[in-house]
Design a protein that fits this description.
- The protein is α+β, with helices and mostly antiparallel strands.
- It is 42% helix and 30% strand.
- The protein contains six helices and seven strands, in the order ββαββααααβββα.
- The protein has helices at 30-64, 84-90, 94-97, 102-106, 113-124, 170-185, and strands at residues 2-8, 14-21, 69-74, 79-82, 129-136, 142-153, 159-168.
- A five-stranded antiparallel β-sheet has the order 4-3-7-6-5, sandwiched between helices.
- β1 and β2 form a beta hairpin.
- The chain is elongated.
Length: 186
């Protein structure tokens, strides 16, 4: 005989079955049915955790190996996380970044207080800010980046963090400047 119990995920979808086989025909007792249900619930937890762990690994790999620089900051613009591309763009190692404020690391002085006030007004209102910045690398050199900053909300819709995606546009800016010089001074 065989006793079988469906294994259901948190969405009540069947993801497998838990079965017990006996050599001889027999009916399960109430305690055995509870035991089977308990083991099926444990199996469901293990399956969901495995799926969650796989999804987290995939998300981690996608963010870490993205071509664009990506960073997460708290509400005070202290860096919580940054990917490898951000380290390459700025010259800072990950360990040097965590807990530091962006303004103390990258500020080039090319954007004024009014510029940053408008940026903060936008993101604190829950909207995405998109624009170009001139920032400073660890070695002091300047670079142009195109940046999008998106607020992250918790389950109560409060803004808790910001995600910034940056793309180095220095080569494009140099080319634009070169073409402008050719047009006006050739």
């Amino acid at each position: 005989s065989c006793w079988s119990q469906p294994i259901k995920d948190s969405g009540e979808r069947i993801v497998g079955t838990f079965a017990i086989y006996h050599r001889h025909p027999i009916a399960p007792q109430a305690t055995e049915i509870l035991l089977i249900e308990h083991y099926a619930a444990l199996a469901a937890l293990a399956i969901e955790r495995t799926h969650s762990a796989e999804a987290l690994r995939l998300h981690d790999a996608a963010l870490n190996f993205a071509a664009n620089a990506i960073l997460i900051t708290d509400l005070q613009a202290r860096i919580v996380w940054a990917n490898h591309a951000f380290s390459e763009l700025t010259g800072y190692e990950f360990e040097e970044l965590v807990g530091r404020k962006l303004s103390t690391l990258l500020n080039s002085g090319h954007q004024d207080d009014a510029f940053y006030a408008e940026l903060w007004k936008t993101i604190l209102s829950g909207k995405t800010w998109h624009g170009e910045l001139i920032n400073r690398r660890k070695d002091g050199s300047l670079y142009h980046d195109e940046t999008s900053i998106t607020p992250v909300r918790d389950q109560h819709q409060r803004i808790t963090h910001f995600v910034s995606v940056k793309q180095d546009i220095s080569a494009r800016k140099e080319q634009e400047e070169h073409l402008k010089n050719l047009a006006f001074y050739d």
